[in-house]
Specification:
Blueprint: E1 4-9, H1 19-22, E2 29-30, E3 33-34, H2 35-45, E4 50-55, H3 59-68, E5 76-81, H4 88-94, E6 103-107, E7 111-114, H5 116-126, E8 130-136, E9 144-149, E10 152-158, E11 169-177, H6 193-203, E12 209-212, E13 215-218, H7 223-237, E14 239-243, E15 246-252, E16 262-264, E17 267-269, E18 274-275, E19 280-282, E20 285-286, E21 291-292, E22 297-299, E23 302-303, E24 308-309, E25 314-316, E26 319-320, E27 325-326, E28 331-333, E29 336-337, E30 342-343, E31 348-350, E32 353-354
Parallel strand pairs: 1-4, 1-6, 4-5, 8-12, 15-16, 15-17, 16-19, 17-20, 18-21, 19-22, 20-23, 21-24, 22-25, 23-26, 24-27, 25-28, 26-29, 27-30, 28-31, 29-32
Antiparallel strand pairs: 2-3, 6-11, 7-13, 8-11, 9-10, 14-15
C-alpha cells in the first residue's frame, strides 16, 4: 500500500518532429536528463517509489532509455505497453489492478519539476477523489483552462479560442486520484481525462479539488519550447560562473577545449566540447563531442552530440540533432535539423524542419 505513480508516455510527439523521429519525446534530453526523468525525480522526492509508465509509440526505445538511467533510492519502475492508443484515462484504466491506494498521474513528455509533497497533503485534506494540479501560462489557447470556485473545479474548456479565455490557469496533466475514480472510466475504448472523464464527473456532481503547482512546468511540444526548457532547468540548477571565457548560470560537465571564446547566459556544456577563436555560445545547450570552429555564434539553440559547426556560421533559435555537419558561413534560424545532415558552405535555413534519410541516429 502507499501512494503510487503513473507516468503516461505513449504519445508520438508529432509537433517535435524531426526530433521525435529518432527518439521518443519522453527521452528527449533537457539539460542532460531525459524529460521524463524530472517527473520520476519529483515522484521520488515525494516518496513515491512504485511507478508504472504507460507507453506505446517506440516503446522499446523508451524502455531501454529509462532502464539506462540510474534510479534514485528504492524507486522501482514498471511498464505497461498499449497495443492500441487508449487515451490518457484509458491507459490508466488498463493498469487498474496495480492502483490499490491514492496515486499520482503525470505526463512523461512534459517538463514537470514540481513539488508533489504539498499537493498530496492538500488532496488528503480535501477528502475528494480527484485533485488536479494547475499551472499558469501566458497563452492558454493550447491547453485545457479551468474555472475555480472555493478551490473546486467549476468548469473546463479545452484549447479555448482567444475570445473564450476565462482563465490563465490550466490543467498541468498531473492528477492525484483515488482508485474509485477509475470506476467512471469505460473499458476497452480510448478515453481522456481532460476531455471526457473530468467533465463527466462534474455532470454527475462529483467535486474535483485543485492545487496550484509549485515548480517548473513546460509543455515541450515544439522546438522553441524545448530550447526554453533547457534554459529554465539550467537557470534553476546551474552554478553561477564568472571566469575567463565563461560567464552566467551554467551546468558544465567538463570545461571546453579552446581559448578566446565566450559562453554566456543559461547554458549547458557537455563533455569534450571544442570551441574556436571568437566563437560565442549564449543561452544554449551543447551536448558531448561538439566542435565549433572560429567566429561561430550559437544563440538560444540546442546542439546535440557529435555535431560540427564550420567557421563563421550562425545558429539561432534552432535544434540540431546528432552528428550533423554544418559548413562554413551558414545561417540556421528558428529551425530543427535531424541527425546526420551535411549542410554545404553558405547554406541558409530559416523556419523549417529538415530530415535526413536516416533519422534513427540518436542512440
Amino acid at each position: 500500500m502507499g501512494v503510487k505513480g503513473v507516468l503516461m508516455a505513449g504519445g508520438k510527439g508529432t509537433r517535435l518532429r524531426p526530433i521525435t523521429y529518432a527518439i521518443p519525446k519522453p527521452l528527449v534530453p533537457i539539460a542532460g536528463l531525459p524529460c521524463i526523468e524530472y517527473s520520476l525525480r519529483s515522484f521520488h522526492d515525494a516518496k513515491i517509489d512504485d511507478v508504472i509508465i504507460t507507453t506505446g509509440y517506440k516503446f522499446e526505445s523508451l524502455i531501454n532509455g529509462i532502464i539506462k538511467q540510474e534510479r534514485k533510492g528504492n524507486q522501482k519502475v514498471l511498464f505497461s505497453v498499449e497495443r492500441e492508443p487508449a487515451g490518457t484515462a484509458g491507459s490508466v484504466k488498463i493498469i487498474e489492478n496495480f492502483l490499490d491506494d491514492t496515486f499520482v498521474v503525470g505526463s512523461g513528455d512534459v517538463l514537470a519539476d514540481f513539488d508533489i509533497n504539498e499537493a498530496l497533503k492538500v488532496h488528503k485534506k480535501s477528502g475528494k477523489i480527484a485533485t488536479i494540479i494547475l499551472t499558469e501560462v501566458e497563452d492558454p489557447t493550447q491547453f485545457g483552462i479551468v474555472e475555480i470556485s472555493d478551490g473546486l473545479v467549476k468548469r473546463f474548456l479545452e484549447k479555448p479560442s482567444r475570445d473564450e479565455i476565462f482563465s490563465n490557469k490550466v490543467n498541468s496533466g498531473i492528477y492525484i486520484l483515488e482508485p474509485e475514480v477509475l470506476k467512471h472510466v469505460p473499458e476497452g475504448v480510448p478515453y481522456d481525462f481532460g476531455k471526457e472523464l473530468f467533465p463527466k464527473l462534474l455532470k454527475e456532481g462529483v467535486e474535483i479539488n485543485t492545487y496550484s503547482g509549485n515548480g517548473t512546468w513546460l509543455d515541450t511540444g515544439r522546438p522553441r519550447e524545448l530550447i526554453l526548457a533547457n534554459q529554465l532547468i539550467v537557470s534553476k540548477y546551474g552554478r553561477e560562473i564568472n571566469q575567463n571565457c565563461i560567464n552566467g548560470k551554467i551546468i558544465m560537465k567538463e570545461e571546453p577545449i579552446g581559448k578566446n571564446f565566450s559562453v554566456e547566459g543559461s547554458s549547458y556544456i557537455g563533455e569534450n566540447i571544442k570551441i574556436g577563436d571568437k566563437t560565442v555560445v549564449k543561452n544554449s545547450t551543447l551536448y558531448d563531442n561538439v566542435t565549433l570552429y572560429d567566429d561561430v555564434v550559437i544563440e538560444d539553440s540546442i546542439i546535440f552530440d557529435g555535431c560540427v559547426i564550420g567557421n563563421g556560421s550562425r545558429i539561432t533559435r534552432s535544434v540540431v540533432m546528432k552528428n550533423t555537419i554544418i559548413g562554413e558561413k551558414c545561417i540556421v534560424s528558428s529551425s530543427a535539423l535531424s541527425s546526420n545532415l551535411n549542410l554545404q558552405n553558405g547554406s541558409r535555413i530559416y523556419d523549417v524542419s529538415l530530415s535526413s534519410e536516416n533519422t534513427n541516429g540518436y542512440d
